[in-house]
Amino acid sequence: MATSRHILIPTSHEISRASCSQQEWLSQNGLSLVPVGPLSPVLRLPLRLSFYFPLQVVREYERAIVFRLGHLLPGRARGPGLFFFLPCLDTYHKVDLRLKTLEIPFHQVVTKDMVTLEIDAVCYYRLENASLLLTTLTSISSAIQLLVQTTTKRLLAHRAFSELLLERKSISQEIKVLPLWGDSRARLELRL
């Protein structure tokens, strides 16, 4: 198989290019540093769109936690309203602050007089410190579920079955408000 050899002779345009810097030549000829090829428009589209939308809207019941290059920005969470972020450097996560319900599945509790009960509960919780919760917990609902289960087991294991039936209201008042991470609170309704 024969190979052909070509001799490249520099043109006057290439000679003038050598006299100026590479950045000046690129700007003079309307070129950018983005790769050229069939995927070029696809690669440039997200970059262009991100520069057009650096403002985001956060609703009244949401807060936005902004991370710059992976680090939490100092100060409190952004919102409600418009907030500005740098598209190439920042990422943000919206956290819903409305009251949420969580149904705790049946779990067994052994009382002081060795009676086994199956208890389920409904937990109402509201997040207050969104940035603390987002940076410390991966799954808020599973953490709250486990916390409620262990708290009910601990409180009910020290009482007899007859006490549980007679003092149902006082027990509910005792575990009515559970302190969670940060300023968040949970309210618990037991179903015996």
From TrEMBL:
Where located?
Membrane
Enumerate the spans annotated as Band domain.
Answer: 53-192
Gene3D superfamilies noted in UniProt: Band 7 domain
| Main location (coarse class) | membrane
Q: Is Lipid metabolism a UniProt keyword of this protein?
A: no
> Which keywords describe this protein according to UniProt?
Membrane
Q: Does the keyword Membrane apply?
A: yes
GO cellular component terms attached to this protein's record = cytoplasmic side of plasma membrane
Kindly name one Pfam family recorded for this protein.
Answer: Band_7
SMART domains found in the cross-reference section: PHB
**The organism sits in which domain of life?**
Eukaryota
What exactly does this protein do? Plays a role in the regulation of glomerular permeability, acting probably as a linker between the plasma membrane and the cytoskeleton.
Family the entry assigns: Belongs to the band 7/mec-2 family.
What name has this protein been given in UniProt? Podocin
Q: What is the originating organism of this protein? A: Otus sunia
